[in-house]
Specification:
This protein is α+β, with helices and mostly antiparallel strands. The chain has three domains: 6-104, no CATH class; 144-154 and 269-397 and 420-453, no CATH class; 159-261, no CATH class. It is 19% helix and 33% strand. It is built from ten helices and 30 strands. A hairpin with a 5-residue loop joins strand 19 (296-301) and strand 20 (307-310). Helix 7 (408-416) packs antiparallel against helix 9. It starts with 5 loop residues before the first strand and ends in a 16-residue tail after the last strand. Mean pLDDT is 84; it is low at 364-404, 418-423 and 425-434.
Length: 537
């Protein structure tokens, strides 16, 4: 019977490392081909080799110093090939050198085990679309910047001065007879008053002065209960009136025009379309997660320090709507309501109210005077508190981070910077009483601001995703392949990546590599080159 001879191959320039930061997805035959292609020298007359950590060879000391890796056969495993890192080379004599080594568990046994479902901390996804992965990454995004802005027109630039009265001032009625208006409906709300409207230009202000003077002549100023500002969009149905009177002490009559607001049974509802940001003009990310919150989002402001953040990924369409809804009242009540947001057609719970419009201090009623001085929706302060609470929750430790051993990707993430309450919201408290200023500057409206983290941070975050994939935090199928050049995999600290006909000590080393995070390269020649476009295949 012919005795099988074992073979040793000295190998140079192998890019693998003993800590299993980078490994290969090579089968045993592919690994052997790599070693043969990078061979320094080989011998095939060894009768018996065991993987006990050292081999006495007849290679020269000079040959051994050129190598960083070896491949050898072991008869204990039916002449299976083993691959190992050279730890040390010891000169014993001429063509007599001891090689001390550590078996490369991953490369030796890669195709002897089968992967299984397990808890995965992070990996490269095989589907990467905007919104396909929403798990928090707990990265510092730095300060944000505005890349585009749209303003809803019609609320901040066109107004009426409104008089709220309990009597008719229509000249069609007998001026000597004061007639109470009864019940009217404006924007679907009941009023025991009549609303008269005046333009805000010079002629309109003069007409308003004449109206009040005329009411005084009729001893009816006590029936004027409020003077306030109302945007024209709330007044869709009006009738133009003209009245004539002779001012006290005047020798001639005066005529003035104004409008009477007519019945309207529904509130204002105007659609405002907004489109998602799905590309950047100054940078093209490799990873689609760079287009979701908190790296890219919509912020809506009412120009008084109250803002709401809306996540593009929570809208179902690439172009979505906000409905601007409003009704007439003293100061008016207007809000921006997101449509089809988080699966809710009209998401009233996440709407943003507009500041109150200015109210004239007309009566001695305490509530009216208080409302005049506090011309902001009270709910905006509550809203600001709610947003603050939400941000506080977002800073909590993510699943699996507390008490866990820091993984490779986790260490890098920690270097980039742990997640904190970044400047997603302006650093001012909301609810300032700026209604009068907004009116004067024609800014009492909604502004839709498209926000993004700054370019330098965006590149850092994109490179991190390119290197380490996305957070998964779920039981899933490990993706050992599926990307063109490399796949990163990191499993839970107590998980096993798979099972098979592998000695337990080697399988434990393979599991240990996956627990701390390992990058699996699919071509040795590209190993370490993270500049490659690692597309899904």
């Amino acid at each position: 019977m012919t005795e099988l001879k074992s073979k040793i191959i000295l190998v140079r320039d192998i890019k693998l490392d003993k800590k299993y930061v980078n490994v290969l997805s090579y089968t045993e035959s592919e690994m052997l081909e790599l070693c043969q292609a990078n061979a320094v020298a080989s011998q095939d007359d060894y009768s018996f080799i065991r993987n006990n950590g050292n081999i006495f060879t007849n290679f020269t000391y000079s040959q051994c110093l050129q190598a960083n890796y070896i491949a050898f056969q072991n008869k204990d495993y039916s002449n299976k090939w083993f691959f190992a890192f050279i730890d040390d080379v010891i000169y014993k004599g001429n063509e007599n050198t001891e090689i001390r080594y550590t078996v490369d568990s991953w490369s030796t046994w890669y195709d002897y085990w089968t992967k299984k479902n397990c808890f995965i901390e992070r990996q490269h996804e095989l589907v990467d679309t905007i919104g396909s992965n929403l798990i928090d990454e707990n990265l510092n995004i730095g300060d944000v910047t505005e890349i585009a802005e749209e303003e809803f027109t019609g609320l901040g630039d066109e107004f009426y001065f409104a008089i709220l009265s309990s009597i008719e001032f229509d000249s069609n009625h007998d001026p000597s007879e004061l007639r109470y208006v009864g019940v009217n409906m404006y924007n679907g709300n009941l009023f025991g008053k009549r609303i008269y409207l005046f333009e805000t230009d010079t002629v309109g202000i003069l007409s308003l002065s004449y109206f009040i003077d005329h009411a005084n002549q009729k001893s009816a100023t006590g029936d004027i209960e409020a003077l306030f500002v109302v945007p024209k969009v709330l007044c869709q149905n009006t009738t133009t009136l003209t009245d004539t009177f002779t001012p006290t002490g005047a020798s001639s009559t005066r005529s003035y025009d104004y409008k009477r607001l007519n019945r309207s049974e529904t509130n204002l509802e105007l659609a405002f379309p907004v489109s998602k940001v799905t590309s950047y003009t100054d940078y093209t990310p490799k990873n689609k997660k760079c287009f979701i919150y908190p790296y890219n989002y919509l912020m809506v402001s009412n120009n008084i320090g109250n803002v709401n953040i809306y996540k593009y990924e929570d809208f179902s369409q690439s172009e979505f709507l906000f409905n601007i809804m409003g009704a007439i009242s003293i100061g008016c009540s207007i809000r921006a309501v997101p449509r089809d947001y988080k699966g809710v057609d009209y998401n009233y719970d996440e709407c943003l109210p507009l500041a109150k419009y200015p109210t004239g201090s007309w009566t001695s009623d305490a509530f009216t005077n208080w409302l005049t001085q506090n011309g902001v929706n009270i709910t905006t302060n509550l809203l600001a508190s709610a947003v603050g609470g939400a941000v506080a929750v977002a800073t909590a430790n993510p699943i699996g981070m507390v008490g866990a051993t820091m993984s490779l990707a986790g260490t890098v993430a920690n270097t980039i910077g742990q997640f904190y309450q970044a400047s997603l919201l302006p650093a001012i408290s909301g609810g300032q009483n700026n209604g009068d200023v907004n009116f004067a500057e024609k800014k009492n409206t909604f502004v839709f601001k498209k926000m993004r983290c700054k370019l330098q941070y965006l590149k850092v975050i994109d490179d991190y995703f390119t290197r380490f994939g996305y957070a998964i935090k779920n039981i899933d199928d490990p993706h050992l392949e599926g990307r063109r050049y490399w796949n990163y995999i990191e499993i839970g600290v107590n998980e096993s990546i798979g099972y098979g006909s592998v000695p337990s000590k080697y399988m434990e080393e393979i599991n240990g590599a996956c627990r701390k995070g390992v990058t699996i390269w699919h071509d040795h020649s590209n190993l370490g080159d993270f500049s490659l476009n690692n597309t899904i295949v």
